[in-house]
């Protein structure tokens, strides 16, 4: 199976997450040591998220966009 790390500002209900899913409020922690990134923010949040990722100084990975509409 695969593991999944979720990044969110608010803690999700852990009872709803499968055991292979972890949560972190720290974006850098969520993106390090991964094979791919999947974003699921609002279309207005895509640019700020990408700008924030740029400042983390970590190697880029393939990114899958799930936002509806792109600015």
Keywords, separated by commas or semicolons:
71 residues, alpha/beta, two-stranded parallel ribbon, 2 helices, 21% helix, globular
Could you write a compact summary of the structure shown?
This protein has 71 residues and is an alpha/beta fold. It has two helices and four strands, in the order ββαβαβ. It has a two-stranded parallel sheet.
Radius of gyration: 13 Å
What's the end-to-end separation, in Å?
34 Å
Low-confidence stretches are: none
Number of strands: 4
- The proportion of strand residues reads 15-25%
DSSP helical segment count = 2
Order of helices and strands: EEHEHE
- What class would the helix/strand composition place it in? alpha/beta
What is the topology, as strand order, of the major beta sheet? 1-2
Major sheet characteristics: 2 strands, parallel
Helix amount:
10-25%
The general outline is globular
Estimate the mean pLDDT confidence: 89
